[in-house]
Every structure is written in C-alpha cells, then in structure tokens.
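[job 0412] stage=complex_fold ligand=phosphoenolpyruvate status=START
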Amino acid sequence: MRSVFPETMRAKLVAGNWKMHGDLSGNAKLLAEVISGSSGLSRTRAAVCVPYPYLGQAQDVLAGSPVAWGAQNVSQHAKGAYTGEVSAAMLCEFGCTYVIVGHSERRALYGEDSDTVALKYKAVLNTGLRPILCVGETLAQREAGETERVVDAQLSAVTGRFGAQALASGVIAYEPVWAIGTGKTATPEQAQAVHTHIRERVAEVDATVAQSVQILYGGSVKASNAGELFAMPDIDGGLIGGASLIAAEFVAICQAADR
Ligand code: PEP
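[job 0412] stage=complex_fold status=DONE, emitting structure tokens
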C-alpha cells in the first residue's frame, strides 16, 4: 500500500506501556533483556513507559543504553496542592524521554477528556519531554462510522489550542480502543487508513509536521503481527501493552520495526 505522502526517512519508535505491572526483580530481568535485544537496532528506538515508582530503576539500568524510558501519565499542572499527582518537571528529573498522555484507559477509567489531555500534552512539551498522544475510537464509534470524527476531535483538542507545531515535538499513537488488550488487532489496511487520515488532517494545518510526525499503532501488537503492521507506509512503530512485558516478544517487535 502506498502513502499519499512521499517516502521519508522517519525513524521508527516502539514504546512499551507496562501499565500497572512490574516489581523490582522482574523489571531488572526484563530491562536487561530489552537492552541486549535492542543493541542491534539501527533505525528503531525502543522505549519503555513504566509505573512512576520504577522510573528511578529504569534510569539506573537504562542510562547509557539504546533504550529510552518514560511515564504513562502526568499532571497538567506544574506544581501545587494536587495530592497524588506527578508533574512533568519531576519526570524530567528521572531522565524520561517520553510521556504517554490520553491513553484510552485514562480517558475511560479516570474521566480524562480531550481538553485535559491537551493540557497534559502541553505540560510535557513545556519541559522538553516528548508526549505520546493516544487517540482512537471505541467499537461502537467505529461501527457507527465515527472513527475519523472521533480521532479528529482528539487531535484538534491539541492543535486547536496549541497549533500544529505542538505536534512537531510529539508522537501520535493511534490506538483503536476495541483492539487494546483484547487480542483483536486492526488489520494493517484498517490501521494504515486511519494513519493516512491523521497525516492528512495534520497536513491541512502544517505539511512539514505531517511529513515528520511519528504515528504509532497500538492495540494487541505481537511479534506475530508486528511485521505486517509496520510494513504500512504511515505506521512508524507501535505502542505495545501486554507484549512489552515479555522480553522476547518486545524485542522481536522492535526488530520487526527495524526491517
Ligand atoms: C496499550 O496499552 O496501549 C496497548 C496497546 O495494549 P495492548 O498491546 O495490550 O493491546
């Protein structure tokens, strides 16, 4: 399948989302195996987004390795009386590169709306970290033919407030909600169609950013389906949940992106 956008040299990114999983000893083993499996990657960056308490461990183990690390959420506020929250500046102190914002679990389980997500996105940018903005439709929305409308609204919450340039230093992850943790993956063609749509929407406001912004696919990516998804011209890697907890799977997914 061809992209409507001319071929570019966009690097690939494969980011693991550990969600609320892990413990110190298991993490040490997983991280060591991810480091050794990532050493031969040439155009693919591997990253792990770990629970907050393990950021220090990730920093200790991954510093100087080819594997980047980051967080799964952040406060939209810079500081203050927000019990239980964590600021982007705090994440900076732990050497993070990436911060996931607007994951569908945050939207569905913690009531994060697109305006809040946009503020979180900006809070991350303000500290020089790279937000990974998650967008995607539910099954009911897809079946009602609303995929593009939903994704457009989630994207324009950021671009409407902060301009398309705000996407220049971020990453977009298209994650159909019906594919997350369900074992149901979008077909490569379904995913490519939405990725192209996203790139076209961004191009309407900034063609250069549309060309360069990395758009990841997320939703039940495994070693066995990663190759065909990443072969699509507008899929620049993946956001990986369950499979990022198994070193051999995660490394194989990174290697599939690197081909
Ligand atoms: C995710 O959590 O972002 C995700 C894509 O999960 P999974 O790979 O398990 O579907």
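The chain has a mean pLDDT of 96.
[job 0412] exit 0
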